[in-house]
Amino acid sequence: MTTLLLVYSAVLLLSVLVSNLANRTILSTAVIFLVAGFLCGSGVSGLIPLEPGDSIVATLAELALFSVLFTDGMRVGWSDLRSAWRLPGRALLLGLPLTLVLTAAFAHWVAGLDWIESLLIGAVLAPTDPVFAAALVGNDKVPARLRHLLNVESGVNDGLALPFVLIFLTLASGSPDLHLGALAGELAIGLLIGVAVPWIAIRLEATRLFSASARYQPLNALAIGLLVLGLALVTGGNLYLAAFAAGITIATCGPRQRQAFEEFGELIAELLKLAALLVFGALISPAFLSEIPLGGWIFAVLALVVARPVALALSFLGSGLNAREQVAAAWFGPKGFAAVVYGLLVLDSQIPAAGSVFHLVAVTIVLSILAHSSTDVLVARWFDEPDETPRWHETGDTAPAPPREPDPERPDSPS
Question: Which segments of the protein form a coiled coil according to its record (predicted)?
């Protein structure tokens, strides 16, 4: 634990020092933490001797995913969805299920897994992450509808994929009938906590008796999130659905609390996400990668370059997006950070095929992080020039001569 903290602190400082460079080049903070974890893991240097069953792995994954879903939910209140739902709605209601099904089909036909495990992989790899498209989302030259699409989709699809992950994970266990009943109870309790706690807290602050000072205002949403986490742990409610529901409730009922917490909350979530990436990288070793068969590598490539592009191409038929916008949207996914933690949950679940599923998930996520987080700047620069017909001097053709103005002194002058 001490060594893990030391390595994390050193890598975090390095990432901060090169963050300005990373914003302008293909260098990526996510890649730095992933590679650092790989080099410090037990399979290489042994500085971070973590094993999949270590409690720190499950605890860190749990906290990281809770914070990500909480901030994701806060990013998209109901008013945001109502104001511009058409394109994100296509990506979420059509693109997400199609991506899940196509990924599952590749896992079944190429990697040779059973359908339940294949559908589980599809659900784990379906979410996207705005961090891996940060340069695109933050570039004002990128069309606003594309930036809004990527931001809303990545903020919502983590929560939408979660029930599918839990259901398929339950079906892959030994006694699904018994577990499905317990899962339904967990989801219901989590949803209730996630809606009730922030709603009551925001209503209390609106009374004359309670009022948060300007200094403590950013801690308001943090306190709500911690209370939701504690109640979910005590009651057995689903932590992740509670976090997502709480974020949406705050964004819907407390825009002031949302605004005060936004920057602070993003930093907290980022710290936990980077820590989980470091741990994830430490679990991957040369021996781990050598255990993945050729079919697994082919599956990972198909999941990256075929599943989501085909799913979004079908989803955006007749949407009005031009080809450049569709290509950019299709490229940034999979895989979101939630997929990293969902993969760790599968590994910790001890289902019979946990090892095989995690190997496929891990190699896909590694390739995705290397590819997507290193190309966001390049794709963003693609939008620096307007999408228009090339000028004559850019094509090398000879420009046509301008028409002659009529000369009133010459009767044969063109008119």
Answer: none
